[in-house]
Structure formats: structure tokens, C-alpha cells
Amino acid sequence: MSTTQLQQERDCRERRLALHDAIEILAGKWRVFILCALQDGSRRFSDLEAQLPGIRPKVLAADLKTLEEHLLISRQVNHTRPVTVSYGLTPHARHIWPLVDALVGFGLEHRRSVKAGMKAPVPV
After folding, report:
1. Mean per-residue pLDDT, 16-23
2. What CA–CA distance (Å, rounded) separates 73 from 44?
3. Which residues of 67-106 are buried (b: 16+ CB within 10 A; e: fewer)?
4. Which of 9, 17, 72, 102 has the CB geometry, 3.0–4.6 Å to 93, for a possible disulfide?
5. By the 8 A CB rule, do 38 and 73 touch?
6. Does an H or E element contain 73, and which?
């Protein structure tokens, strides 16, 4: 195998691993929605629950922990009475928005295509 082929294989493997990482981080049903809910500023757990109808508290807690582990959100303990915890986006999370915008664009176009396809006459 030539040096060029070896380099191409390494590059391909590196790209696959990077794609796997990105998909793994965002794979949870609610993770992108959690990030979007935090886009306008920090929120408390109960605020996130209210903003994301249908999410179970256990799922929200697990997804917040995962997003924090991946450095996309930060958790801040506020020493109030009672103690409160708030979550906010990290500077690293800014890399997510082009992906989210691209997904929204795809979703809008996909909906249009499917809707247009449903109106097309069925071939006989």
C-alpha cells in the first residue's frame, strides 16, 4: 500500500470517528432541544422542564450530564436559599449552531418535498 493510500485511509478513519463522536453527542432525542432552550441564556432545571413539554425528569438529568461531560453546557450551583442549579451554554457550544441551522434547513426542505410528493398523482 502506498504512502498516499495509507494517509487517505487514516484520514477516512479519522473523519468516521469524528462523525461518530458528533452523532453520539447529539443522538439523544432531547439533546438538541435542550441546547436550543439554553440558547437565550441560563435556565434552571424546572425552567427546562417547562420549556420542553414531554421530557421526563430522569431523561433531562441524564442528558444534561452528558452535555456537560462533552463541554457543551456548564452547571452552576447558586448558593441561595434553597440552593438552586442553573445550566448554560459553554463557548464550545457555539460550534453546534451551524449544524442545527443545517438540520432545520434540511427539515424544512424535506417537509416541503414530502408534502409536494403526497400531492403528486400516483403512477398507474
Report:
1. 90
2. 12
3. beebebbbeeeeeeeeeeebbebeeebeebeeeeeeeeee
4. 72
5. yes
6. strand 73-78
Grid cell locating 85: 442549579
Tens of pLDDT along 21-68? 888 888 889 999 999 999 999 999 999 999 999 999 999 999 999 999
> What Å distances lie between residue 78 and 37, 42, 51, 68, 95, CA to CA?
20, 12, 21, 17, 27
- Look at the block and give the residue holding cell 420549556: 51
Res. 1 pLDDT band, cuts 50 70 90: confident
* Rounded Cα gap, residues 81 and 99, in angstroms: 39
How far is the C-alpha of 115 from the C-alpha of 7, rounded, in Å?
A: 44
Q: What is the DSSP letter of 75?
A: E
Q: How far apart (Å, rounded) are the C-alpha atoms in residues 68 and 72?
A: 6
Beta-carbon contacts of residue 26 (< 8 Å; ≥ 6 apart): 32, 96, 99
